[in-house]
């Protein structure tokens, strides 16, 4: 993982009338870690169960890996026909379309067909033909998803469009979990779902949660540290996850407009008060140029750190908002 919490419970002991509890689960294909301070152990247990249930609910809504998910039903029954789905499905689809409009289509949940194509090419070790990519691009485009939000209905206006929430679903699950924890009366803690982190109120005696952003080329060195409270940080990059096609490392992030994996190794971290937003934008910024990413980050007032591999070295860009969260690491 390239974003890690450096928190050590031994250095932030719970205050009187407080307990510290940590738990780990496996959900949405990722490790989920919760570290919480609660009024009592039973309160923590109830809160943790509630949060875990939320993550499982998000998985049931958006999973591409199970045939009983709401997403599977949309793919099966929702072509050219409006079908009713849970309101959370509409909520995240609507937000995803919003990020497509914001990024000129760099972020697009309709990349499903392209993801299948490049995954298959990984299995058979061959780059897909130009015509196969073109065909898959024809099945891509956020305007192919139509919503009737008031009625909780969705329609897919294409015989071959497939949705993929892989770039935003974990962030959304984090936001849902934070909401569930707060409803159970827990406000102090940190959640990590597959490298998507939300830092709630800080540990006792601390003024924030210290997070390290590691050198993506795997040296283990930390490139930057941020200290955050009630903020999320997400990282996208092709250093850790990629398609291996006949020995060539290709990014698992695709440009929905061309159908090809984004070029050039990069790792992009986004800090936002919304985990959904941090997740979506860190993926989108991997597709956009540094200038485009910086412009959007400034407009939305989110922090961004862009690391790009250049020759033997790494070039680093940090936005002003990102700098405002940065600390030297020792404090
Ligand atoms: P992340 O790790 O959050 O950057 O998400 C990457 C995953 O999102 C990929 O494995 C694909 O399933 C999906 N994806 C790839 N490219 C895009 C894109 N341009 N927009 C939205 N989702 C994408
Ligand atoms: Mg993402």
Structure description:
This protein is α+β, with helices and mostly antiparallel strands. Helix content is 34%, strand content 28%. It has nine helices and 17 strands. The protein has helices spanning 41-62, 70-77, 87-102, 112-124, 130-138, 169-183, 275-287, 290-300, 320-325, and strands at residues 3-5, 19-27, 30-38, 83-84, 145-148, 153-156, 188-193, 196-199, 209-214, 222-228, 231-237, 242-245, 248-251, 266-272, 303-310, 313-318, 326-327. The structure holds adenosine monophosphate and magnesium ion. The site of magnesium ion has 8 residues, from β11 and α7.
Give the key terms:
globular, 4-stranded antiparallel β-sheet, alpha+beta, 331 residues, binds adenosine monophosphate, 9 helices
The ligands bound in this entry are: adenosine monophosphate, magnesium ion
Average the pLDDT over all residues and give the rounded result.
Answer: 93
- Share of helical residues: 25-40%
Based on CA atoms alone, the radius of gyration comes out at 20 Å
- Summing up helix and strand content along with how strands pair, one would put the structural category as alpha+beta
């Amino acid at each position: 993982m390239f974003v890690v919490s450096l928190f050590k419970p031994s250095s932030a002991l719970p205050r009187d009338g407080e307990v510290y509890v940590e738990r780990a689960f496996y959900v949405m294909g990722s490790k989920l870690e919760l570290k919480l301070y609660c009024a009592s152990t039973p309160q923590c247990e109830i809160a943790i169960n509630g949060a875990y249930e939320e993550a499982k609910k998000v998985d049931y809504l958006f999973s591409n890996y199970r045939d009983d998910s709401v997403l599977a039903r949309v793919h099966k029954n929702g072509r050219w026909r409006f079908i009713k789905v849970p309101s959370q499905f509409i909520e995240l689809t609507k937000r995803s379309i919003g990020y497509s409009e914001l990024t000129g289509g760099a972020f697009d949940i309709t990349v499903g067909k392209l993801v299948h194509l490049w995954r298959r090419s990984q299995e058979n070790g061959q780059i897909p033909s130009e015509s196969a990519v073109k065909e898959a691009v024809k099945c891509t485009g956020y305007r192919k998803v139509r919503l009737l939000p008031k009625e909780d209905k969705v329609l897919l206006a294409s015989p071959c469009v497939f949705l993929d929430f892989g770039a935003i679903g974990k962030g959304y699950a984090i936001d849902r979990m934070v909401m569930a924890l707060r409803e159970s009366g827990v406000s102090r803690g940190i959640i990590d779902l597959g490298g998507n982190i939300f830092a709630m109120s800080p540990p006792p005696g601390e003024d924030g949660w210290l997070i390290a952003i590691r050198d993506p080329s795997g040296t283990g060195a930390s490139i930057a540290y941020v200290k955050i409270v009630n903020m999320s940080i997400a990282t996208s990059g092709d250093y850790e996850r990629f398609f291996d096609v006949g020995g060539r490392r290709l990014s698992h992030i695709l440009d929905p407009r061309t159908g090809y994996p984004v070029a050039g190794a990069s790792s992009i971290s986004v800090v936002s008060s919304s985990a959904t937003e941090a997740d979506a934008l860190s993926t989108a910024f991997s597709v956009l140029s540094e200038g485009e990413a910086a412009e959007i980050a400034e407009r939305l007032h989110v922090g961004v750190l862009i690391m790009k591999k250049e020759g033997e070295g790494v070039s680093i860009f940090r936005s002003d908002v990102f700098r405002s969260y940065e600390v030297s690491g020792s404090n």
